[in-house]
Model the fold of this input.
Amino acid sequence: MKTSAGILLFKREKNSHYYFLVHPGGPFWKNKDAGSWSIPKGEIMPDENPLERAVIEFKEETGQTIEGEFIALSPVKQKGGKTVYAWALESDLETSGLYSNTLQMEWPPKSSKMIEIPEVDQWEWFESEEAQRKINPAQAAFITELEKILNELK
Done:
């Protein structure tokens, strides 16, 4: 079964929490919005450290390196069966200079035609309630869990 690892970047402004989410690139995702966004993440290879993979994927999907005090969150299982491991990190990130690596994909499906697409085509900060609507439904649990942790730390 596939597993992925990613980073839920968050920041606090006034009395609100904001979450950094990415939108997948390519024609399949072009007009999809609610439920289509994700934390920056990628597939974990066998014998690979999941947190190291999460940090690498963040760089691949944003062009930015991150470091700090990572908060481990409980893994979630997405509808397709993939398990996603995540760590939260409090940090701010300017979205204007971000860029993603690209990948080759067959499009249209079964056409044997290959196109190059960005892995991520949008990056945005969302306030908690909107982030919950935008993110993949299974990954919304990361936001809920993190907010519970942050409330307990107050």
Notes: Residues 32 and 108 are 17 Å apart (CA to CA).
